[in-house]
User: Which sequence fits this backbone?
């Protein structure tokens, strides 16, 4: 069982940066693939980024590629999402998620709001 708690959201102007953090409980964090999803008002939740259990492999949605960077510190049980060159369309609730092995993500945080003003 893993519990995930996001932090770092807030209000930022377009072109600005934010770093989201996701702290995980449990001693098996290093065995989990971790990801970030987001959900804008009136839209479905969408994939943002993913990082392998070791941190050696990452994958991004086309909409954030080159602007966002996912990373993790297994010693601190934390995964990060560095968001640069933010756009108003990045406004959403951002969710941290995790899974072991293949299959669907089955652990979710409560979400953190990111608002980008134009």
Assistant:
């Amino acid at each position: 069982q893993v519990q995930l708690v996001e932090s770092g959201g807030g209000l930022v102007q377009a072109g600005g940066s934010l770093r989201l953090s996701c702290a995980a409980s449990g001693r098996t964090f290093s065995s989990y693939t971790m990801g970030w999803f987001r959900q804008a008002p009136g839209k479905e939740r969408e994939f943002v980024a993913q990082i392998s259990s070791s941190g050696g492999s990452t994958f991004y949605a086309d909409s954030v590629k080159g602007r966002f960077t996912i990373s993790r510190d297994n010693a601190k049980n934390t995964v990060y999402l560095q968001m640069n060159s933010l756009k108003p369309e990045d406004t959403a609730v951002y969710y941290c998620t995790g899974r072991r092995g293949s299959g669907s993500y089955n652990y979710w945080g409560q979400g953190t709001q990111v608002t980008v003003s134009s």
Summary: The longest strand covers residues 92-100.
